[in-house]
């Protein structure tokens, strides 16, 4: 039976109708008078085929909607499943603690690590607490503090990116948002320990790059990664957010586009319907991708890690210029 609380996107309506019919038939069967097993199985197969066909043909704007799906696994889900003995570390030692960007120490498959990630929240209360994943300057300064700690003790850094962008409020700007983002980006690039980033949902602008300037960048199939949101792009280019779909399709923000451009190193396939339909499976596969990348990077010393990271980012765009 489908989850009655499941959120369907607009383009998933045919699937929603089929799954609703399955639910209705199963409720009839519960009475014991009508055997509808064969019909239910046929509808399930049809719904599965419809879902698979739909997700094989998603355009960039539809992928944007999937990346923003409220039920998509968030940082807390990855942390609970992949990080043992987690100890959260709070505060930037200057202003306060930012709840949009969380981090701490833990153990990933037998390795001690520092882990960081944007947390959007799963309900109204938690979304407000975590400011919908939009970090303020103190969040990025906390990230810098934790990366310093990682380098001091020789611990790999794992980051999970899922943000529409850094918080653009007046208070954040007063406290030096751009400077904090720049310094966090710089710290990523100068780390003498491995850093691996996973784009799990939205990778929005400098708010994402600040913790994603890594040796290895992994991206989920239906995530997005962009310098600006499609809505922001449409507003600037056409003064019309109704053209967001056109902007999304023009910006090449999807995982496969970015892999071709060598901006991301690996794309992790998602099941039909997106990561939220099989969250446990998805989290495990992300863990496998991180472990594989980490095994390669652990062979490099500090100088080699910095050089590899530098060359990785300087190489972006070279092929298009030659």
How is the topology of this model organized?
Blueprint (H helix, E strand, L loop, with lengths): L12 H17 L7 H20 L3 H8 L7 H8 E6 L12 E8 L2 E8 L5 H6 L7 H17 L3 E7 L6 H5 L2 H14 L4 E10 H5 L6 E5 L3 E3 L3 H9 L5 H8 L3 H6 L5 E3 L10 H19 L4 H13 L3 H4 L1
Parallel strand pairs: 3-4, 4-5, 5-6, 5-7, 6-8
Antiparallel strand pairs: 1-2, 2-3
- Proportion of helical residues: 40-55%
Structure annotation, total helices: 15
Query: Mind summarizing the main beta sheet?
Result: 8 strands, mixed
Alpha-carbon Rg, integer: 21 Å
In the CATH hierarchy, what is the architecture of the largest domain at level 2? Alpha-Beta Complex
Query: What is the total tally of β strands?
Result: 8
CATH domain topology of the largest domain: 2-enoyl-CoA Hydratase, Chain A, domain 1
Percentage of β-strand residues = 15-25%
- Low-pLDDT stretches: none
């Amino acid at each position: 039976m489908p989850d009655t609380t499941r959120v369907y996107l607009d383009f998933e309506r045919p699937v929603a109708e089929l799954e609703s019919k399955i639910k209705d038939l199963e409720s009839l069967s519960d009475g014991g008078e009508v055997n509808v097993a064969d019909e239910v199985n046929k509808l399930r197969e049809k719904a599965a085929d419809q879902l698979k066909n739909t997700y094989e043909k998603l355009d960039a704007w539809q992928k944007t909607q999937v990346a923003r799906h409220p039920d998509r696994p968030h940082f807390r889900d990855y942390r609970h499943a992949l990080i043992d003995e987690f100890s959260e570390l709070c505060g930037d030692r200057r202003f306060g603690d930012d709840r949009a960007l969380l981090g701490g120490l833990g153990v990933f498959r037998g390795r001690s690590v520092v882990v960081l990630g944007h947390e959007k929240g799963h309900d109204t209360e938690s979304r407000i607490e975590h400011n919908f994943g939009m970090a303020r300057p103190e969040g990025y300064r906390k990230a810098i503090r934790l990366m310093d700690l990682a380098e001091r003790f020789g611990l790999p850094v794992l980051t999970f990116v899922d943000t529409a962008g850094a918080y653009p409020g007046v208070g954040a700007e007063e406290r030096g948002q751009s400077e904090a983002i720049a310094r966090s980006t710089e710290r990523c690039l100068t780390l003498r320990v491995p850093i691996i980033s996973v784009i799990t949902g939205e990778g929005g602008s400098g708010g994402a790059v600040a913790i994603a300037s890594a040796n290895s960048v992994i991206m989920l199939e239906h995530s997005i990664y962009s310098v600006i949101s499609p809505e922001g792009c449409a507003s600037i280019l056409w003064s019309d957010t109704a053209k967001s779909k056109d902007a999304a399709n023009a910006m090449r923000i999807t995982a496969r586009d970015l892999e071709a451009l060598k901006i991301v190193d690996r794309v992790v396939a998602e099941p039909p319907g997106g990561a939220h339909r099989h969250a446990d499976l998805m989290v495990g596969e992300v863990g496998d991708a991180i472990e594989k990348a980490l095994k390669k990077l652990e062979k490099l010393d500090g100088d080699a890690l910095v050089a590899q990271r530098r060359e990785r980012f300087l190489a972006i765009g070279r092929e298009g210029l030659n």
